[in-house]
Design a protein that fits this description.
It catalyses: 7,8-dihydroneopterin = 6-hydroxymethyl-7,8-dihydropterin + glycolaldehyde. By secondary structure, the protein is an alpha+beta fold. It has helices at 19-24, 39-44, 53-64, 72-86, and strands at residues 2-13, 26-36, 92-100, 110-118.
Length: 123
Amino acid sequence: MDQIKLNGMMFYGYHGVFPEENKLGQRFTVDIELFTDLKKAGQSDDIQDSMDYGQVYQVTQRVVEGEAKNLIETVAEDISKALFEQFGMLQAVSIYIDKPGPPIPGYYESVGVEIYRERQDDV
C-alpha cells in the first residue's frame, strides 16, 4: 500500500486530565501516515486522484484545536474517524500525537500515543 505522510504538524489544544491543561492549553505535534493506492495519481498528475494534504491538515487542526478531551487517545481516534469520513480513498491511517512537557511527576521530553486504524465497512 502506498503512503502519504504529514510530519510535525503543530497545534495548540486543551486536552488533558488536569484542570490546568484544560485552562492553559499546550502544544501538540501530530504525524500522520495515510495508506491508499497512489498509482492513478502518479500517472495522471491530478490532485483529484490523490488526497489534498491541505485538507488533511485542516481536518486534523479542527479536531486538535476543537473540543477538549481528557485523553490524547481520544483525540487520535477522532482524527482517524474524521479522515475516513472526508477521504473515500483512504484505506488505513497511522496517527502519532506527541505531547511535549506533560505535567506529570518526573522529567519527560514528551509523551505520546500512536494508533493504526483500517477502513471498516460501516465507516
